[in-house]
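Students often ask what a 'structure token' actually looks like in practice. Rather than answer in the abstract, let us consider Phosphoribosylamine--glycine ligase, a protein of 423 residues. Its sequence is given first.
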Amino acid sequence: MKVLIVGSGGREHAIAMSAAKSSKVDKMYCAPGNAGIAEYAECVAIGAMEFDKLVAFAKEKEIDLVIVGMDDPLVGGLVDELEAAGIRTFGPRKNAAILEGSKAFSKDLMKKYDIPTAGYENFTDPEAAIAYLETAKFPIVLKADGLALGKGVLICQNLEEAKEGVKTIMLDKKFGTAGNEMVIEEFMTGREVSVLSFVDGKTIKTMTSAQDHKRAGDGDTGLNTGGMGTFSPSPFYTKEVEEFCNKYIYQKTVDAMAAEGREFKGIIFFGLMLTENGPKVLEYNARFGDPEAQVVLPRMKNDLIEVAEACIDGTLDQVDLKFEDNAAVCVVLASEGYPVSYEKGFPISGLDEFNKHEGYYCFHAGTKFDGDHIVTNGGRVLGVTAKGKDLKEARANAYAATEWVQFKNKYMRHDIGKAIDEA
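Now compare that with the structural description of the same chain:
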């Protein structure tokens, strides 16, 4: 098979590494890719939103399977365009990717089908939003409706902050058109857990659990980012929690989308909050999480290509999804100043070390080649992942491996997976 992966981050590197293990794959391309993905795939200078060029390339190279890693092209309808050209594609069509593309849609879906989530209201009028906030309980959560690189969520402690938040999202348009509509949601407390799943339109198979760390600074301080690290599995995702979610959240979501005429095939990412009143859905994503994929995929025993094809063909019920009985931790190495402003173009050393140690991985997020050298090319630069027999060992291994890699202005959190110690 010839496979094309669409995307350029750490998630796509993890997908490429996983796909490269498949005996079915002869040749792999990635558009646009990065310096790490180049180890597994031929990188092609086509952007993820250049749909016409991607379709033309897939036809020219006679691609057998396209895997769309990123949210923007999924929500924009890339899968529809590839399928219209007769190209098999793993990922939801546009009318199903709305599950991530519109928070207002997903909240209304959960309300309609009685899927547990936080209380909320949707607003298109800033004045109406402010009038609602004047009667609300604090803290409260404001969410831009559309895609905002994981950063369009504001937690407001009082009315003054909330009014400023409405201005930021709806008037100043800090997150662009994503802020044309806004969700105001009750603030939930508890442990967060991420559960990724494969879906074929009818059947859902969940993967091992994980937990992301969104904030830039230690102790969950600072601004929201795309994710500063993850661990898997979550010790807080107990058998009891899993059984509840199977019954009230996972299959109900798949069935709800089908009932709405929006058959979902691909990945559903469930962002869960384990509240004192039981698990509730924080958010849905329509693709692998980043950096969740970097701890989940290395632990998966199955052939990723076979599972992706089963999702496309509607035969996922025949797949026995299996994961290693171990743990993994990913620590993101970022550029100092991320997620606001940062410098790029610094040489990276120490990457060769990962080839010498089994169970250690370095997933490239923001890198590129400068001649023969690999240099920094983004806010999140690398995701250093390590396995261990349990979470504590995996965490120690991952932090030890961060010392192998050096570049100017290297920044990371030092408490990824610290919650493990409290489990």
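One point worth highlighting: The mean pLDDT is 96. Ask yourself how you might have guessed this from the sequence alone, and why that guess would often be unreliable.
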